[in-house]
Design goal:
Blueprint lengths: L1 H6 L4 E6 L6 H8 L7 E3 L5 E2 L18 E3 L6 E6 L7 H15 L10 E4 L11 H10 L7
Parallel strand pairs: 1-5, 1-6
Antiparallel strand pairs: 2-3, 2-4
Bound molecules: guanosine-5'-diphosphate and magnesium ion.
The site of magnesium ion has 2 residues, from helix 2.
Length: about 140
């Protein structure tokens, strides 16, 4: 079954960005009409342990390149980025690198089709400096996406 999930050719690929507890997983579950956890694959298509999704990283470290696919809606493939906390320059570069590499993909199903940015609005400061940099540097019209 795991292999079947990745066999689907026409897939919509979405990057979901948001700080821990922003509600990313909840939104993806709603979109996919499920309460299940997604299956996770690395870039080469190897199925990974669910532990990689835990905040502490579990046995492996979650990578933005990992693909998350819900059994209930395998036409969507999600990439999860942990969002930009204060001073997260490193993370910003990582996301930029991911966007750049997906831009260079020739195959439509390997390209990135949308970015969903989750902002928790119950926060005194919903947009951090690092996030402002991301919007300034990775917005449309600046050549990155
Ligand atoms: N108040 C409120 N809580 C939410 C909302 N969306 C998700 N949560 C809760 O916030 C917590 C973190 O959600 P989760 O989807 O795991 O966040 P993630 O870390 O970004 O994947 C969970 O306990 C959710 O039930 C929302 O829109 N409002
Ligand atoms: Mg999550």
């Amino acid at each position: 079954m795991a292999a079947d999930l990745r066999k689907k050719v026409h897939r919509f690929r979405i990057l979901v960005i948001g700080r821990a507890n922003a509600g990313k997983t909840t939104i993806l579950q709603k979109v996919c009409n499920t309460t299940d956890q997604p299956e996770i694959f690395d870039k080469e298509g190897n199925k990974l342990d669910q532990d990689v999704l835990k905040p502490t990283g579990g046995r492996g470290i979650h990578s933005i390149n990992n693909e998350m696919i819900f059994q209930s809606n395998p036409g969507f493939v999600f990439h999860d980025s942990r969002g930009f906390e204060a001073g997260a320059d490193n993370k910003l570069n990582l996301v930029k690198g991911f966007l750049d590499s997906r831009l260079k993909e020739q195959k439509l199903d390997q390209q990135l089709h949308a970015i969903w940015y989750c902002l928790p609005l119950d926060n005194a400061r919903p947009i951090s400096n690092a996030e402002e940099s991301f919007f300034a540097e990775c917005g449309t019209g600046k050549g990155v996406i």
